[in-house]
Amino acid sequence: MARPGAGGALLRVLLSQLPPAARGPPPLGLRGPAAAAASYGTSITSAKIKVNGVPLHYKQTGQGDHAVLLLPGMLGSSQSDFGPQLKSMNKQLFTIVAWDPRGYGHSIPPARDFPPDFFERDARDAVDLMQALKFKKFSLLGWSDGGITALIAAAKHPTLIHKLVVWGANATVTQEDLKLYNAIRDVSKWSEKIRKQMEEMYGHEYFAKTCEAWVDGISQFADKPDGNICQHLLPHIKCPTFIIHGGKDPLVPQFHAEYLHKHIKGSRLFLMPEGKHNLHLRFAEEFNKLAEDFLQ
User: Gene3D superfamilies recorded for this chain (predicted)?
Assistant: First the structure.
């Protein structure tokens, strides 16, 4: 979950401003909705498709046989969270899709809300999006909130998910986590740089209200036994799973990654010593290689 804390240091790792993706026309000869956004070479295309009654925005690139869905963090989008992956991951081996969950990025309307099952709803939307794009089987790369969504999707749809990579994710909410969440409730205390980026994307009112709603939404899990988000689902994950953790992540303590590793059978855990919460952006080349090597 992209969740900076007090003092400004944590705010700097929330979301990075990335250059707009290059766009190109879709090639001919592809089937169904995927034709609207498929791309070859280095082009990145954007489109919307209605899934579960909501027009979901996504970006797509590559022509490989192995489909991969990138899942962003809180208030994140395909543009803000995955620029280096859309640009530089191997497009001969992979077809890469990055989506904006409902209420985030360009998947507005609807406004974002956080009912008790919002992670399950995102998981359902993500899987149904890929099926609407005619991908029969695919891998998931999930960051932060998107990592939680990916864990749930992999557990509930074992026949659809090929491989799973998560980082900055957690299966429970602790009292320590609650302190981090409440530290970002008031967006006026955020760093000016990050606040400006969010306001440019969402406008001040939507940004502020959604941040407050997210804090309330994620905090509700602390009232459950053991702060459970999805820990009961981890034993049901059957696909090969790669957990990456930043050794200097100030937002998600290492015990969360270790817990995932312990409870997902056969999973791998890799510690990136200098990595923080946004390790896939700050160390994009190393991250991309790790992910590609695992996915192959």
Answer: alpha/beta hydrolase
Residue 3 lies inside a defined structural domain of this protein: no
Sequence-ordered strand ranges (E) for the chain: 45-51, 54-61, 66-71, 94-99, 138-143, 161-167, 241-246, 268-272
25 domain-assigned: yes
At 184, the pLDDT band (50, 70, 90 cuts) reads confident
Instruction: Find the Cα–Cα–Cα–Cα dihedral 46, 50, 53, 54, rounded to 10°.
Output: 10
**How is residue 191 written in tokens?**
């760093």
Bridge partner residues of 114 (DSSP): none
- CATH number, domain containing residue 199: 3.40.50.1820
The residues annotated as belonging to the active site are 144, 249, 277
Q: Of the ranges 34-38, 208-212, 262-266, 290-294, which one carries the lowest mean pLDDT score?
A: 34-38
pTM of the model: 0.86
In the chain, the number of structural domains is 1
Cβ–Cβ under 8 Å, residues 264 and 230:
no
| 160, pLDDT greater than 50 | yes
Question: Does some domain include residue 274?
Answer: yes
Instruction: Supply 270's token pair.
Output: 């890799």
Which token pair is 6?
A: 């007090």
Question: Tokens 């053991």 identify what position?
Answer: 226
Task: Give bridge partners of residue 166 from the DSSP assignment.
Answer: 142, 243
Taking the alpha carbons of 287, 289, 290, 296 in that order, is the dihedral positive or negative?
positive
Segments forming the whole domain that contains residue 132: 11-295
Quick one: tokens of 275? Answer: 């990595």
Burial string for 283-296 (b: 16+ CB within 10 Å, else e) reads bbeebbebbbebbe
